[in-house]
Specification:
The complex is a heterodimer.
Chain A: E1 2-5, E2 9-12, E3 17-21, H1 35-44, E4 52-58, E5 66-72, E6 78-83, H2 84-90
Antiparallel strand pairs in A: 1-2, 3-4, 4-5, 5-6
Chain B: H1 5-13, E1 31-37, H2 41-54, E2 59-62, E3 78-79, H3 89-100, H4 102-106, E4 117-121, H5 124-139, E5 145-147, H6 149-155, E6 170-174, E7 178-179, H7 182-195, E8 199-201, E9 206-212, E10 215-221, E11 226-233, H8 239-244, E12 252-264, E13 272-274, E14 280-284, E15 289-300, H9 308-321, E16 330-341, E17 347-350, E18 356-360, H10 366-383
Helix pairs in contact in B: 2-7, 2-10, 3-10
The chains are: A alpha+beta, B alpha/beta.
Bound molecules: flavin-adenine dinucleotide.
Chain lengths: ~100, ~425
């Protein structure tokens, strides 16, 4: 698989470490009433979809950026690659 | 129809005309006591033990493709009980004991071959870890022994003992480990279940669950609705997809594992050998092919094929311990979709929905588990209680802080 890095261009997927579902960006609020339940879901439960999925890849053997890669788990076809930073900001996170 | 040496002899003399199909192709009935979803090794073993050990025969096994089309027909056929943790090891030892008597039990030649498994040791800390594991194995009644380099040299002179980075310093051996003809396991269980009245229904994909008052009362299938007292899901790599039909999210990701087989060679390997410094394992089939594999590819996928970086990694592992493998020509390679759980251990449990049961999360090690998985799942379905060796395989174990993490790497399915 070739991942088209937004800053570096096409890179071999073997340069990356795979983290999984991009939902892991949305860490629950540790002070919420139901924090224990929410963290259990966050840590352990997955949608594990067959089809298009947004996922986190870390460019360990490159510029060490975190990417959100949208990839089809049935065909391995990649349709979009963004910096995880940009995705998180769009969701109203961080600076 | 029973099998015996006499029968083989007689058929040989009479043109092999007397052999008959060993299971029926029935149409689904409108209702069963228990419906099992998935005719892989585990589903068929469950049906067999339900009928044979617990006397429940009004059972159907529904399969979306053909019987044995999933991982039961794709694995590298290794059986062993060399686990460490108390939640796992007694279960796998129970499984190995069932393997040892399986062919007599279901009167079918599954080519169970206890040709031993050697886990190579390449460093002092690894020897300590394997010594601990060897002791844990013995606590469950399994056999284990630690070998030194000289003993391994006598068994496997072709290994690269003085490799500069990964010298071979010893091995953990389980003599009772080995290999089994995987397809024959599915066929033997299917035949044994069918003979006792279980309906095995192929080309019958489950597309939904029938719910009444919050309880599961059967399934929707490609061949119409079927009612069931209990519905037992057992679909390995498809676990998340099927349980999503009941609104459940599982602690599972689906990943691909690749395997490889070479052209047939003369008998070379004494048993199964695993590399201790990288991910590579190899055995030799009775036809002579070297059967080998390594790591999963590491990303979520439902495609039954992998990518080249892992092929390279596996072959490098092979060359590191067994340079002669570089001269063998590859015949085939393939992949299967693994139900990788968050701690690398499986589930055999009731769900929070009445009437709905789940068996899955077998990762890349579910073949060796087939007999015990079927036995314990049947026990749970028949008695309502988990079998004593499967009591730790619960769906709520992460919530309780009780994962069974052999490798100690945490909730990263691609690292288990
Ligand atoms: C390359 C490879 C090597 C392996 N090597 C080993 C090994 O050496 N030792 C070991 O112990 N384990 C090994 N494994 C793991 C082992 O094969 C699996 O853990 C085990 O086979 C899974 O259980 P099963 O046999 O029931 O699965 P499967 O045979 O996959 O059965 C599941 C069945 O469910 C069916 N199904 C799915 N969805 C539906 C639906 N909606 N309706 C109806 N039916 C459905 C599928 O078609 C399939 O037939 C390996 C796996 C692979 C891929």
């Amino acid at each position: 698989m070739i991942i088209d890095h937004p800053l570096l261009g096409p890179r071999d997927a073997a340069e990356f470490v795979y983290k999984g579902d991009a939902a892991l960006i949305d860490r629950p609020d540790w002070q919420a009433e139901d924090a224990a339940d929410k963290f259990h879901e966050y840590m352990y439960l997955r949608d594990n979809v067959a089809g298009e999925m947004a996922e986190l890849w870390y460019h360990e053997h490159g510029d060490r950026s975190w990417l959100v890669v949208t990839r089809n788990t049935l065909t391995h076809k990649i349709t979009s690659v963004e910096l995880a930073r940009d995705v998180a900001r769009r969701r109203g996170r961080g600076k | 129809m029973g099998y015996s040496a006499f029968k083989v002899f007689w058929e040989g003399l009479t043109g092999n005309k007397g052999w008959k199909p060993v299971w029926r192709e029935p149409d689904p009935k409108p209702q069963y006591d228990i419906v099992i979803v998935g005719a892989g090794g585990h589903g068929l073993a469950t049906a067999y033990y339900l009928a044979k050990e617990f006397g429940i025969t009004n059972v159907a096994v529904l399969e979306k493709g053909w019987l044995g089309s999933g991982n039961i027909g794709r694995n590298t056929t290794i059986i062993r009980s060399n686990y460490l943790l108390p939640g796992n090891q007694p279960f796998y030892e129970k499984s190995l004991k069932l393997w040892e008597n399986l062919e007599q039990d279901f009167n079918y030649n599954a080519m169970v071959s206890q040709r031993s498994i050697l886990n190579l040791i390449h460093s002092d800390p690894q020897r300590d870890a394997f010594a601990r594991r060897a002791n844990a194995m013995r606590l469950s009644g399994a056999d284990s022994e630690l070998l030194g380099p000289e003993e391994i040299r006598a068994l496997c002179p072709f290994l690269d003992f003085d490799n500069a980075r990964f010298p071979i310093q010893g091995a953990l051996r389980q003599k009772r480990g080995g290999t089994v003809r995987h397809d024959a396991v599915a066929w033997g269980y299917a035949r044994g279940a069918d003979m006792r009245g279980v309906d095995i229904i192929q080309n019958c994909e489950v597309t939904g669950f029938r719910m009444e008052n919050g309880a599961c009362v059967g399934v929707e299938t490609a061949r119409g609705p079927i009612r069931a007292g209990k519905t037992a899901v057992c679909v390995a790599g498809s676990s998340s997809r099927v349980m999503a039909l009941a609104g459940m999210r599982l602690p599972i990701e689906s990943h691909v594992l690749q395997a490889f087989v070479t052209e047939g060679l003369k008998p070379t390997l004494p048993g199964v050998i695993t590399f201790g410094a990288g991910h590579f394992y190899v055995s030799q089939s009775d036809k002579g092919g070297l059967v080998f594999g390594g790591d999963i590819d590491g990303y979520n996928t439902y495609a039954q094929r992998g990518n080249l970086p892992v092929v390279e990694d596996v072959c490098e592992g092979g060359m590191a311990i067994m340079p002669m493998i570089g001269r063998a020509r590859l015949l085939r390679m393939w992949g299967g979709v693994m139900d990788m759980s968050m701690d690398g251990s499986p589930f055999i449990d009731k769900t929070h929905i009445d009437g709905l049961y789940f068996n899955g999360g077998w990762c890349y090690g579910g073949f060796k588990a087939t007999p015990a998985s079927g036995y314990c799942y049947a026990h749970l379905l028949a008695t309502g209680r988990p079998h004593e060796v499967a009591g730790a395989f619960r769906l709520d174990r992460f919530r309780r802080g009780a994962p069974i993490d052999e490798k100690g790497v945490g909730a990263h399915p691609n690292l288990h």
